[in-house]
Design goal:
By secondary structure, the protein is an alpha+beta fold. The chain has one domain: Alpha-Beta Plaits (2-Layer Sandwich), CATH 3.30.70. The structure holds iron/sulfur cluster (2 copies).
Length: about 150
Amino acid sequence: MRKFFLPSLCNNCDNPICLTNCPVKATWKREDGIVVVDPHRCIGCKYCMASCPYDVRSINPLKRIVQKCEFCRHRVDAGIEPACVETCLGRARIFGNMLDPKSEIAQLLATLPTQVIKPDLGTFPQVFYIEGDLDAMNPMKGWKGEE
Ligand code: SF4
Ligand code: SF4
């Protein structure tokens, strides 16, 4: 049996299928690529939850609206890194502008083998796993108890 830890967060996909079914346009992609939810527009219908192939959206039980990782957009807008990046003790998370060739993230993507989850779906996830094992990263395979 293999055991591993895999952070599972919204991939802020470049082709985010989750937003196509939102009946009130409460979710959309910003110019910088972050996929966001407007809590004032969301009616909690969960259509986006059913659409997301990564199961990373959840309903806030008190507010009855959908929430997900938005890369801490309030921090990004203030010019600081997402909280998980800043607080990760292992420095395992790197965040930045992939379009800037001088950025650490762009240089890592250019020099190291990386993988995304479910690459065949055409969603173009923007979360990459360095030396990711595609089989191990498939939650359904893990759930079935593969060796
Ligand atoms: S991971 Fe799911 S919720 Fe996040 S952008 Fe992609 S399709 Fe949407
Ligand atoms: S739960 Fe909210 S964000 Fe999701 S599809 Fe419904 S209205 Fe849109």
